[in-house]
From TrEMBL:
Natural source organism: Peteryoungia algae
Protein family according to the UniProt entry: Belongs to the folylpolyglutamate synthase family.
UniProt entry keywords in alphabetical sequence: ATP-binding, Ligase, Magnesium, Metal-binding, Nucleotide-binding
Top-level lineage group: Bacteria
InterPro entries referenced in this protein's UniProt entry, alphabetically: Folylpolyglutamate_synth (IPR001645), Folylpolyglutamate_synth_CS (IPR018109), Mur-like_cat_sf (IPR036565), Mur_ligase_C_dom_sf (IPR036615)
Matching Gene3D superfamilies: Mur ligase, C-terminal domain (3.90.190.20), Mur-like, catalytic domain (3.40.1190.10)
Protein name as catalogued: Bifunctional folylpolyglutamate synthase/dihydrofolate synthase
Length: 446
């Protein structure tokens, strides 16, 4: 996922990667020590919207940003991981306008300062990058900060934020079991760790009752003002529109710019959370947000670029970084919905890393995928071999062909399907793969 060194910040991160581990070591002791040396910048932030969950964190973050910017507010945004460049993790708010990805020199300076403050002590790269978040967001003025959790919640480095304006918990499903537990209830308990006593909590759509019960129980124990999707607020599609409803009434809105039925729930959760944080959301503001929201690498349509040119003429190409069984189900549902509107044969180009559940992810596409191709992930030492991934596809009930690259897979689709109905191609299985594709295609997020 890491881009070639082309900037000051890239060079600083390359040095850090050589000194510190790339993985996770869940604890708050190291980050708190470092932040104290830095003057506790996490205590000098604008109001924070803190977002956790297994799936939909990024989408909720994107909707929150769109809703706040539609009100003319300046919004800092932290997300992880990045797709192509490290800089994507930090979007700096602009008053009355669209926030911008952090300036390279500003980012590099913050990295140097954090590294110097750490003094070579044991720490993970993610913790350093989180400290950079707090430096950037405390020193650059903004009205609001939306901060996405990296992994889990309770011991995630972002969880040093002591008094957020609102905590959001998005859908919980199985992922990162080695760190968070092998049952949704255990994972929910870790995600619930971002809740703070008395701070409003908004719980998004939960497929598993066990997870929802854990989240509600934690919020009630901490005395958090609580709103729950489908109980206190909801949204649904009606006549090609999004209808949002809570105790204050209805809003009749355009469907979100982000495709997929699941985005209706994500939009609703963000609307409710922004309200809970103290920012009124009018119908005009919400309509503007639905039409302007953007989130690269999540059911992103690719219409031009170097890789697109290798697909059959007229193909519909989608890119999504979802990588667990829950994400597979959501993406498959989106593909079915697209098929209902316009029939096309579905081809999958899939790459995954070895800490995920490929069988669980791929099982969602049984009976809807015509052709499946497995590919490697470039620049990652944890990518699954395409042959092994094809074997997992077979165990899931899909016949797959291993390929040496996404480009080769698109060439194979072109050769097989040229002259027939142009296919719908879904490239996915990993955010690392999504980053590879955007970089190779020449469509880097801005």
């Amino acid at each position: 996922m890491t881009a070639p060194i082309v900037s000051l910040a890239d060079a600083e991160i390359e040095k850090l990667m050589g000194l510190h581990p790339k993985g996770y070591d869940l604890s708050l002791d190291r980050i708190r020590r470092l932040l104290e040396v830095l003057g506790n910048p996490h205590m000098k932030l604008p109001p924070v919207i803190h977002v956790a969950g297994t799936n939909g964190k990024g989408s909720a973050t994107a909707f929150c940003r769109a809703l706040l910017e539609a009100q003319g507010l300046s919004v800092h945004v932290h997300t992880s991981p990045h797709l192509v460049r490290w800089h994507e993790r930090y979007r700096i708010g602009v008053k009355g306008g669209r926030g911008q990805i952090v300036d390279d020199a500003l980012f590099a300076d913050a990295l140097r300062r954090v590294a110097e403050a750490n003094g070579g002590k044991p720490i993970t790269v993610f913790e350093i990058l989180t400290a950079v978040t707090f430096i950037l967001f405390s020193e650059q003025p903004a009205d609001v900060a939306v901060i996405e959790v990296g992994l889990g919640g309770r011991f995630d480095a972002t969880n040093v934020v002591e008094n957020p304006a609102v905590s959001i918990i998005q859908p919980i499903s199985l992922d990162h079991q080695a760190y968070l537990g092998d049952r949704v209830e255990l994972i929910a308990a870790e995600k619930a760790g971002i809740m703070k006593r008395g701070v409003p909590v908004v719980i998004g759509h939960q497929e598993f009752d066990g997870a929802k019960d854990v989240l509600i129980g934690t919020a009630e124990r901490l005395g958090c003002p609580l709103t729950v999707f489908a109980q206190d607020f909801l949204a649904y599609e009606e006549f090609g529109r999004l209808v949002y409803q809570d105790e204050l009434g209805l809003m009749d809105l355009p469907l979100p710019r982000l495709p997929g039925r699941h985005q209706i729930g994500n939009a609703a959760t963000a609307i409710r959370a922004v309200k809970a944080a103290g920012y009124p959301v009018t119908e005009e503001v919400a309509e503007k947000a639905m039409l302007s929201v953007e989130w690269p690498g999540r059911l992103q349509r690719l219409t031009e670029g170097r890789l697109v040119e290798r697909a059959p003429s007229g193909s519909e190409i989608w890119l999504d970084g979802g990588h667990n069984p829950g994400a597979g189900e959501v993406i498959a549902e989106a593909m079915v919905s697209m098929e209902e509107r316009q029939a096309r044969p579905l081809c999958l180009v899939i790459g995954m890393i070895n800490t995920k559940d490929p069988i669980g992810y791929l099982r969602a596409f049984v009976d809807i995928a015509h052709n499946v191709y497995t590919v490697p992930i470039l620049g990652s030492d944890v990518g699954l071999d395409p042959v092994a991934l094809a074997q997992s596809a077979a165990e899931a009930g899909l016949k797959a062909l291993p390929m040496s690259s996404v480009g080769e897979a698109l060439d194979a689709i072109r050769q097989k399907m040229e002259g027939s109905v142009p296919p719908r191609i879904m490239i996915g299985g990993s955010l690392y793969l999504a980053g590879n594709v955007l970089a190779e295609n020449g469509t880097v997020p801005a």
